[in-house]
Amino acid sequence: MAETDNPYQNAHAESFWGRLKAELLEDGCFISLEDARNELFNYIEGYYNVCRLHSSLGYRSPIEFENQYYQTVSLLNSHK
Hints:
By secondary structure, this protein is an all-alpha fold. It has helices at residues 11-24, 33-48, 62-78.
C-alpha cells in the first residue's frame, strides 16, 4: 500500500504538476472552464509533449528524443 502525502512516492507526477502550475498558471485566472481546458490541452499537447526539454530524456525535447531513437534504429537495421 502506498503512503499518503508522500511526494517522493510519485516524483514524476509531482514534478509535472509543479511545472504545470509554474508555466501555465503564471498569467493568472482563466475566463471560463472551457478556456482552462483549452489552455491545458494546448500546454500539454502543443508544448510539454513536443517542445519542452525533459531531464529524463537527457534534456532533449520528446521530438528530438524520438527522432534520435528512429535514427539509431535505422542505423542498426542498415548494418544487419
